[in-house]
Write a structure and sequence with these properties.
The chain is built from three helices and nine strands. By secondary structure, it is of the alpha+beta class. The protein has a single domain, classed as Nucleoside Triphosphate Pyrophosphohydrolase. Strands 1, 4, 5, 6, 7 and 9 form a six-stranded mixed sheet that branches. A three-stranded antiparallel sheet has the order 3-2-8, with no helix packed on it. The longest helix has 13 residues. The protein starts with a helix and ends in a 9-residue tail after the last strand.
């Protein structure tokens, strides 16, 4: 689904102005440790991802987004990280600008079959973490590799002030 009725109603009010959105992304690995990467109809690469809809939990949103974009049914296993800021700012070909606060989940495949393409997806490819092409949102390596027991988030001690 390219744009939800909720997002469309907001766009009717604010046109292409920057909109901050809660979003989710999935890191889904195959048996060889490769990560599923989506090539969009606009030619950009990304993790399966999308906006959280009103009333929807982040885990439910990642299950829905992965299914819509890949045809796969997944289970959200753990939060790999939370990312946001300028690196999560995207301008779409129609001029709409969004900046996501993205909860990235590690997911496991539980059913469904990989699609050849969809409304949002031109193609799907499996990449080893070190071979992933440049993504529209440049997720940190710690998120893509799923390293560590704790979830990744950006931190700088300078934020503590003088």
């Amino acid at each position: 689904m390219p744009i939800s009725p909720y997002c469309s109603a907001i766009r009717d009010r604010i046109a292409s102005e920057l909109r901050l959105i809660p979003a989710v992304a999935a890191v889904l690995r195959d048996a060889h440790g490769r990560v599923l990467i989506q090539r969009s109809r606009h030619g950009t690469w990304s993790l399966p991802a999308g906006a959280i809809e009103p009333g929807e939990s982040p885990a439910r949103a990642v299950v829905r987004e992965v299914y819509e974009e890949t045809g796969l049914q997944v289970r959200a296993e753990r939060v790999l990280g939370v990312v946001g800021g300028l690196q999560c700012r995207v301008t779409y070909p129609n001029g709409d600008r969004v900046e996501g606060v993205v909860t990235v989940f590690e997911c496991t495949h539980v059913g469904g079959a990989l699609l050849d393409s969809s409304d949002e997806t031109a193609s799907l490819h499996w990449f080893l973490p070190g071979e992933i092409p440049s993504l529209a949102v440049p997720y940190p390596d710690a998120v893509l590799h799923g390293a560590g027991a704790a979830a990744y988030f950006e931190w700088d001690d300078a934020w503590l002030g003088p």
